[in-house]
Write a structure and sequence with these properties.
The chain is of the alpha/beta class. The protein has helices at 8-34, 58-62, 83-87, 103-112, 119-132, 147-150, 162-173, 193-197, 203-221, 224-228, 250-253, 309-318, 335-341, 357-363, 400-405, 409-422, 437-447, and strands spanning 135-137, 186-188, 233-237, 257-260, 276-277, 298-304, 324-328, 342-348, 367-371, 390-391. The structure holds 2-acetamido-2-deoxy-beta-D-glucopyranose (4 copies). This is Probable glycosyltransferase At5g03795.
């Protein structure tokens, strides 16, 4: 007889990543709330200014002890605010108190630990997932008036939000699909947010109504939703409007797993312990010929629209620097060359928390620097981001050069070789291959197949 999925080993598997995600969340929440983050003087109107009004609920700030186990590193030049000092809690028994290690040693420890939080656990559990995970997709007729948004797409995914289409195409080609919903662990809600957004009958403002009606029909036509209140249902979206898809379906919002690119902790649409981050990846076919051979002579690179106070601050401080290239607007040189020529590539929060820059940076073998508070980094419950990236609090932009130059050649070599190791997890394929983005997303879902509810109806 098969082991029931609520057996203790499964619980542990589910519990660890949840804790990691929660710790990371608390860490960032605490850090940013207790350090001066309002470098924004010139915030005009963008939503990103909300960052500075957010005050975390007090009970969250008081949860002690676990900050040093956070899965996301924040390298601060103003290390006086030691986290241990700040919260006063004791260290976890199994972790070395981070204050007893010099920051260099601590970082080296993280970087050499490997790109996974626990590789053996992951590989074993991945195999199990690959073998037994089953997804049911709600079916739709070819002549459905919204068939274009509901049925699998047959075009080549393109543009900034390609991840949504790639996921759907990969899923339909994969062995995870079952025809009998009785066998399913999860139910996929197949609406395409990009499709609805481009459908004049719906458009951006109509998406929440469309989704409300869609969920109404699914809950009345099929028995599956009601068994769990939708907790074993999920949808996938990359455009940020997808995050508000459930705005008029409040019950669904609190239960359905949202796999979205715009995985910002602080915006109300994203619920960090339930939802999952989807990497935003620009579609690319060929690997660059000089991925490993290129000489990385520039310290750091950024180019992009000045659509947030964080980016404005970056360009204000570093716009004229010789070593950090921080460019406002479009480049005159090829983007790929800049990514190949730089040691560090900056991901700086814009209007949204996510952009394709993290994926770009990894694709071109450049070590990503995340300057974006409240970002639930993709696959953060599987991958050890400390081993292949640098996370800098937005309030530390003035110390950026000091932080990056504080990373030795030896440390950099480890970071960069780890970037090359995680590359395959940030790639889509026209037919999915093991450990690619599709399989990593499936694994995230597998981790969230919830601490199983008894299905009272079948
Ligand atoms: C950090 O500590 C040093 C020495 O104790 C002090 O000079 C410096 O002003 C402190 N920095 C901050 C940001 O508190
Ligand atoms: C995952 O499943 C596919 C299809 O059964 C199989 O070809 C592949 O080898 C499996 N991968 C792993 C790592 O188990
Ligand atoms: C599911 O629950 C809703 C709300 O209680 C109810 O209206 C609906 O008929 C139920 N669906 C099915 C298929 O029984
Ligand atoms: C990488 O290779 C491409 C194609 O050969 C070339 O155009 C480009 O200049 C090279 N870039 C770097 C940074 O070496």
């Amino acid at each position: 007889m098969a082991q029931p999925p609520w057996s203790s080993s499964f619980r542990t598997l589910f519990f660890i990543p949840t804790c990691l995600a929660l710790n990371a969340f608390l860490f960032i929440l605490f850090y940013t709330s207790s350090s001066s983050s309002s470098s924004s003087s010139s915030s005009s109107s963008s939503s990103s200014t909300h960052t500075f009004f957010f005050s975390p609920p007090s009970q969250l700030r008081q949860i002690p002890t676990q900050f040093h186990d956070s899965s996301i590193p924040l390298l601060s030049s103003t290390q006086n605010l030691s986290l241990e000092d700040a919260n006063g809690g004791p260290a976890l028994p199994h972790t070395q108190p981070s204050s007893s290690l010099p920051s260099f040693g601590r970082r080296m420890h993280e970087q050499t630990k490997g790109v996974f939080h626990d590789e053996d656990l992951f590989l074993e559990d991945y195999k199990e997932m690959n073998k037994s995970f089953k997804i049911y997709v709600y079916p739709h007729k070819r002549n459905d008036p919204f068939a274009r948004s509901l049925l699998p797409e047959d075009f080549e995914p393109h543009g900034n939000y390609a991840s949504e289409s790639y996921f759907k195409q990969s899923l339909f080609k994969s062995h995870f699909i079952v025809n009998d919903p009785k066998d399913a662990d999860f139910f996929f809600l197949p609406f395409s947010i990009t499709g609805l957004r481009n459908d004049r009958r719906v458009s951006v403002s109509g998406i929440p109504d469309f989704i409300r009606d869609y969920i109404f029909s699914v809950t009345h036509k099929y028995p599956y939703w009601n068994r769990t209140g939708g907790a074993d249902h999920f949808y996938v979206a990359c455009h940020s409007v997808g995050r508000s898809a459930m705005d008029k379906s409040s019950e669904a919002k609190s239960s359905v797993v949202q796999v979205v690119c715009s995985s910002s902790y602080f915006l109300p649409g994203y619920i960090s312990h339930k939802d999952a981050a989807l990497p935003q990846i620009w579609p690319r076919k060929q690997d660059p010929p000089n991925l490993t051979s290129s000489k990385r002579t520039r310290l750091a690179f950024f180019a992009g629209a000045m659509n947030s106070p964080t980016r404005q601050e970056l360009v204000r401080v570093w716009g004229k620097d010789a070593e950090i290239f921080a460019h406002s607007g479009r480049l005159k040189t090829p983007y790929a060359d800049e990514l190949l020529r730089s040691k560090f590539c900056l991901h700086v929060k814009g209007f949204e928390v996510n952009t394709a820059r993290v994926g770009d940076s990894i694709f071109y073998g450049c070590v990503p620097v995340i300057i974006s508070n409240y970002y639930d980094l993709p696959f953060g419950d599987i991958l050890n981001w400390k081993s292949f990236s640098v996370v800098v609090a937005t309030s530390d932009i003035p110390s950026l050069k000091k932080i990056l130059k504080g990373i030795s050649d030896e440390e950099y070599a480890i970071l960069q070789s780890n970037v090359l190791k995680v590359r395959k997890h940030f790639k889509w394929h026209s037919s999915p291959v093991d450990f690619d983005t599709f399989h990593m997303v499936m694994y995230q879902l597998w981790l969230r197949r919830t601490s199983v509810r008894l299905r009272l109806m079948d």
